[in-house]
Write a structure and sequence with these properties.
Layout lengths: L4 H11 L21 H9 L13 H14 L3 E5 L2 H12 L5 E5 L4 H13 L3 E5 L4 H7 L4 E7 L11 H10 L3 E5 L9 H4 L3 E4 L14 E5 L18 H7 L3 H14 L5 H34 L4 E2 L9 H7 L7 E5 L3 H10 L4 E2 L9 E4 L10 H7 L5 E5 L5 H12 L1
Parallel strand pairs: 2-3, 2-4, 4-5, 5-6, 10-11
Antiparallel strand pairs: 1-7, 6-7, 8-9, 9-12, 11-12
Length: 411
């Protein structure tokens, strides 16, 4: 049974067209003509919904944005040039110097560096906590705290957050909650669990074959009555709420980040991403089944495997109750040392060694010598990076072939 059957019709019908070009049209233009000065004025003040300039969006990306907003039940989305661009857009559109972020759980190395190094230079401080340290999280919330950030699945520590519990804390204190849902599109719908913003690296599972760099941020609607974004904590965006109403967070992202930082995607990459999106429900369903098959077999064979489907994982119960549609393509193997990890990667016949994840091929990477090579011992320990850790992203290959290959490589 396909866990994501509802999306199969939605994506192929939404991306295609019943008249003219069936495949999404690529608007390969940097500029767009307005026709007359009145239309130009309307485009710039937002009353006319036509393309302004490719830096702030183009029709091809606009179609992708519509599909992604529908996927997550958002009021709108903004496509970006990469996953890090999506995170940067969402963060920088809401925060300013002196503000604070709370980051909960596992964290991709690029995001950790962005929070710990780059944002610090601009006067934005981040406090990092274990995924289950919710009492400690509440204790450090101040009037300057504007964002709680988490990944739907810790990358690469494979720890699972209680998203609803974190959302309850965010709502109780009137703080925005942002969820990186890159490894669990369709599986988890963070906006329905209480998140305000969802970010993706669409390069990964959504595009699905390493052909197109991209990202996206999906936003919930601003409520008509009381809303956390109408409080003094978010006074800097009230003018957007007054003008744009429910669509205010999208407008904030466009005006305060996309326009000024220029993180727009190419039309061609948005086109390739839509082609990937059409098959995402089919690919993801197979990948989730394969991951569970592979990790149980490798565990039985004696490998030190980490995945929440395994009985000895600390979040096994949470996996069963809150992550019924899987946790995406990732698991890890700890070979005990860098030398053993290198030996394993050299021996495997099916794995592609790369920093990407969510591909149609099975990918793997030694973490400590690559993405986390610049991190100190304490940072690696907090993020779950051990000397022999290998991150694996399962693809579309036959899982039995993967099992045989991995066991042979580990001998």
């Amino acid at each position: 049974m396909n866990r994501f059957e509802a999306f199969t019709t939605q994506f192929v019908q939404g991306a295609g067209a019943k008249e003219g070009a069936v495949s999404p049209v690529i608007a390969n233009s940097a500029a767009f003509a307005y026709g007359d000065p009145e239309t130009a004025e309307g485009i710039f003040d937002g009353s006319v919904k036509k393309p302004l300039y490719a830096r702030v969006g183009n029709p091809t990306s606009g179609k992708l944005e519509s599909l992604l907003a529908q996927m997550d039940g958002g009021v709108g989305a903004i496509a970006t040039s990469s996953g890090m661009a999506a995170t940067t857009l969402a963060v920088m559109s809401l925060l300013e110097s002196g503000d604070e972020i709370i980051s909960i759980g596992g964290l991709f190395g690029g995001t950790y560096s962005f929070f710990e190094e780059t944002l610090t230079r601009f006067g934005i401080r981040t406090a990092f906590f274990d995924v289950d340290a919710l009492e400690e999280v509440e204790a450090v919330i101040t009037a300057k705290t504007k964002l709680i950030y988490l990944e739907s699945v810790g990358n690469p520590n494979m720890r699972l957050p209680d998203i609803e519990a974190v959302a309850a804390i965010a709502d109780a204190h009137g703080i925005a909650l942002m969820v990186d849902n890159t490894v669990t599109p369709l599986s988890i719908q963070p906006l329905k669990l209480g998140a305000d913003v969802v970010v993706y690296s669409t390069t990964k599972l959504i595009a699905g074959n390493a052909s197109a760099l991209g990202g996206a941020a999906v936003f919930r609607a601003i409520g008509e009555g009381k809303d956390k974004f109408k409080t003094p904590r978010y006074a800097s965006i009230h003018k957007f709420i007054d003008k744009m109403g429910a669509m205010a967070l999208v407008a904030v992202g466009k005006k305060r980040a996309m326009r000024d930082f220029g993180m727009s995607p190419s039309a061609f990459n948005s086109y390739l991403t839509m082609l990937g999106l059409e098959t995402l429900p089919l690919r993801l369903n197979r990948i989730i089944d394969s991951v569970e098959t592979v990790v149980h077999a490798l565990k039985e064979a004696g490998l030190n495997v980490n995945h929440p489907a395994l009985r000895d994982h600390p979040h096994r119960d949470r996996y069963a109750t809150q992550f019924g549609n899987g946790t995406g393509p990732l698991f890890t193997i700890d070979m005990g040392s860098a030398e053993a990890a290198y030996d394993f990667l050299r021996k495997t016949k099916l794995v592609t060694i790369t920093a990407n994840i969510g591909d149609s091929r099975t990918l793997a990477l030694h973490m400590a010598s690559t993405i986390y090579s610049d991190f100190g011992d304490n940072e690696r320990a907090f993020l779950g990076i051990t000397p022999g850790l290998i991150r694996v992203s399962v693809g579309l290959e036959n899982p039995d072939d993967l099992i045989r290959d991995f066991i042979a490589a580990a001998e």
